[in-house]
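> call design_seq(struct)
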């Protein structure tokens, strides 16, 4: 083992747990649920929803908040950072000990009242107990041109964990090597053949195309994210049967991905069009060979059904 591994607290913890015959939450076994439960709430304020959720009840929060750029009424606040800290603090409360939060944003500072990701990350570091694990760079080739600065071709995703025992399923999101590269690596005696066959770590730079105007997934929401992007996050940072929460649900893509991946979901948005967006998206990305989906009228009903299923 390298000296670098010895100095890394995460490596030390994993090695200690393995010596003691314990499994880290990132290695725990999971099975697909017989039924997945999904709650969709339109015209709903995020703070009111979060106040209804039990402590430590959610495994993954996918958060693509308004950036306070004044592009619409829902994107205009004078107390942005204070407001964001209120829902981020609630996220900290509802996250399970192995839970994760992913926060979309940008680093283009536009003023003290803006929704710049730097401002939120600074506030999280100094006022909350969430732990930054990675800053993921979502890179795409398509985008708008620019003449007074270099054209943007990426966005940032800050991945936070509730504790050091966070869930991380690397094998679920590995990228296969090309046939030629895999053959070359398998000939190298220094490399583990089993790991080579699983594929490579995607790293923290992800090249996933943005949704073009004619994309099959496009349902009309202005900030809709690609299903492939959300699916990598869901598969890596949660397990089948976990609860995934998105209270800035937009197009509803997180709920559709959760269904496809065997997770339960709570999706909410102030936009009354959320159910319509979600049904369009579900029809275009129809899940195949997944557990039956059962709608729940409220988060309380969802958790009650989960408790009932656990007792059965």
């Amino acid at each position: 083992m390298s000296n670098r591994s010895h100095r890394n607290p995460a490596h030390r913890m994993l090695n200690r747990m393995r010596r003691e015959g314990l499994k880290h939450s990132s290695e725990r076994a999971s099975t697909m649920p017989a039924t997945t439960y999904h709650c969709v709430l339109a015209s709903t304020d995020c703070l009111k929803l979060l106040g209804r959720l039990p402590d430590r009840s959610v495994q993954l929060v996918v958060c693509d908040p308004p950036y306070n750029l004044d592009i619409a009424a829902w994107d205009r606040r004078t107390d942005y950072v204070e407001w964001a800290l209120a829902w981020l603090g609630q996220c900290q409360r509802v996250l399970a000990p192995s839970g994760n939060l992913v926060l979309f944003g940008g680093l283009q500072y536009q003023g003290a009242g803006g929704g710049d990701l730097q401002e939120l990350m600074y506030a999280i570091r100094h006022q909350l107990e969430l732990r930054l694990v990675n800053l993921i760079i979502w890179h795409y080739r398509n985008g708008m041109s620019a003449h007074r600065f270099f054209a943007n071709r990426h966005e940032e995703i800050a991945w936070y964990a509730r504790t050091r025992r966070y869930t991380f399923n690397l094998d679920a999101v590995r990228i296969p090597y090309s046939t030629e590269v895999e053959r070359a690596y398998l000939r190298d005696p220094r490399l583990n053949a089993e790991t080579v066959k699983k594929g490579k770590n995607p790293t923290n730079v992800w090249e996933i195309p943005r949704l073009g105007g004619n994309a099959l997934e496009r349902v009309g929401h202005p900030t809709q994210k690609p299903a492939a992007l959300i699916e990598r996050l869901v598969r890596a940072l949660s397990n089948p049967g976990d609860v995934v929460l998105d209270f800035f649900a937009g197009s509803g893509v997180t709920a559709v991905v959760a269904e496809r991946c065997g997770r339960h979901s709570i999706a909410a948005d102030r936009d009354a069009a959320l159910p319509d967006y979600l049904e369009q998206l579900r029809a275009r990305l129809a899940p195949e060979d997944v557990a039956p989906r059962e709608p729940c009228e409220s988060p309380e009903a969802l958790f009650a059904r989960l408790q009932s299923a656990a007792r059965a």
